[in-house]
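Continuing from the previous page of notes. For each protein in this section, the sequence appears first, followed by its structure tokens. Read the first protein now.
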Amino acid sequence: MKSDQIIRDKFADLYAIAEAQGGYFTTEQAQEVGFSRRQLTYHASTGRFERVRRGIYRLTLFPHSPYEDLFIAWLRTGKQGVISHESALALYDLSDVMPAEIHLIVPPTASRRHPGLRLHTNRLEPDDITTYQGLPVTTVPRTIAHVSAAGLADELVIQAVQEAIQRGLVTKKQMRELAQQQGGRTQRLISLAFEGLKKA
């Protein structure tokens, strides 16, 4: 029947959206492909969708991801945020950093009313942003610049630089350029990281 095909198409469209977002989707995204709020409530009551928080749902049968908290945080900012600072280091699995909050960089005009999120308004150029594990995130060099400037412990910044080089996420040339651009503490810590790599 035609109505059955329409329903299948709606679910296929929603799945395509959620698949790119760790299984999550927003009320607005569901409405864009034809789901009403009433239908969202119904499918949540049957267990097909899981209501994670106001305005955000998850496809119940979608495989879980270790980055679910980051996907939710990103969707909470209306997809305007970019994972940054310690949260970006954790996403890249660089250093032993354990962020107490989720850090995102948002435009100055974005809403700041997101309890539990650490929002920054650092200026970003297009080249400062990449996609990793399906999430928008500051590049490794930009992340290291941010955490260094924000005062992350010396040993964690040094460890992040060394691990990034060893894993091929950045080159020594990129780190030298970053050191020259940033100067100060960032330059000092990158130099220490290089010295440690020589001794290893």
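Done with the first. The second protein uses the same format. Note its length before scrolling.
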Amino acid sequence: MTVAAGIMITFALVGHPLLQLLGISLHAFYIAGGILLFLIAIDMLFARPSRTRETPEEAEEGRMASDVSVFPLAIPIMSGPGSMATIVLFMSQAGTDWLKIGSVAIALAVALSCSFAIMLLSTRIMQILRTTGVAVIGRVMGVILAALATQFVINGVTAVLGLKH
């Protein structure tokens, strides 16, 4: 959990400046992040393992490693490409408004805390929800993620085209 939090905080602080350094516009990142999140949402909707999580080589390394808390749990499951893109986009939207930055930080802390609590209670949650309940929740969250991803793409495209939405 600490590693995932550290990665997310790092991306929250240096993600946007890093994009600027690399010459990547925020609009391009909106579109790319939206497409990436949409692919993850499709995997969730069809109950497929996400292709963005790990390569076969990473999976093999994870099986051989003694500590799964860093790989594959913290990276790439909890702090993977989708969450990194999301945190960079939300921090970019916050700009220099400390209230908005604080809101993003609080949302990140709440999300990580909820993830930690769910991991602690995962055995009990699985007993209650069973496989079908988990699948239903995963698909509903996939629809919500697809909508968020679509909004990211809309925001990026309308900004590039100079349209108001």
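What the second structure shows: The mean pLDDT is 85. Residues 5 and 112 are 7 Å apart (CA to CA). We return to this in next week's lecture.
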